[in-house]
Design a protein that fits this description.
The protein is an all-alpha fold. It contains 17 helices and two strands.
Amino acid sequence: MGNDHNDAPSRVLDPSDPVSPTFRTAVSESIATFLASQLPVLDAIGDELGPVHTLAGRLLSGGKRLRPAFAVWGWVAAAGLPSSSPGPLLTAAASLDLLHVSALVHDDVMDSSDLRRGQPAAHREFERLHATAGWLGDSAVFGHAGAILLGDLLLMWSVQMLHEAGLDPVALGRALPVLEAMRTEVTCGQFLDVVAQAQPTNGHGRQRALDEANRVVEYKSARYTVQRPCQFGAALGGGDERLQQTLADYGSPLGRAFQFRDDLLGVFGDPALTGKPAGDDLREGKRTLLVAHTYAQTTPAGLALLDALFGDPGLDADGVARLQQVIADSGAKQAVERMISSNHDRALAALAAGELTDPGRTALTALAEAAVQRDY
């Protein structure tokens, strides 16, 4: 490894605490350094781009940093702990969060979400900018356009950041096919989600809704959140095909468990922790596996309530509470909790059976806990 980062590996990379505050700070510093390098580029184009850079910095300043963590510890699973500063590896891993925030910005536009991590979503910020300036046209249309372009810019920056990370060209060449698959899968998974949102969930379509929800989870979340980041890191570290298969067997079920926890938090989570209003997924009408199970298992009265209230953007606190009760009474909440536990167990079994370094195994086991045992 190079020496781009001042922290020694033992300080930044602790297998027993794989997404420690020190690790998250190191990732944040890598992102901040890259964003700072882009400020003169935007300034040279025009002062109008100041808010774009500022908003990018705000959106990238937080988050769980799980995708960078899975990438880094995938590398360690293949190659062991680095003997020198992990700067290039951290920068390459951090580029995954630019890709992730790009997807979140676009996702918020598609879902008409008002908040992201407790602050106004990007399209709402651009909408406010337009309205405050008194510019011509519709502020909401401007907000959507600005957010789409910001998401595109973050996607392009994620590619640039990776290629400027200082990685060995041979190692990067090994890893690029994994990252290219990840980008394709998450985009196609998002389209599958859009299609699923448009399909009816009643009558003979209930089982189909379950099947489609499972497929969306695999491509939009499971591979994107855990499997591909792990495999990307392992490819950088020279991992063989057996390790790649182990990480697939680990990453797919764990990524599913991660998303299922997100689904529960989107309905039952504490807004102070999730950064989004209570029951926001119910207002947005998100066709998650939790909702698919509810439609498949609830009573006729529950179906009637779902048909009347689910997806209503004006849903008030009482309506949220009523739908939460329908979901709980149907057994869907308990079913999803069981699926989280089952998929978590499958992921750990894959690690136990696989051939990987001891620090990699320790870290990926701890990351599995962090992915599913959380309240935000």
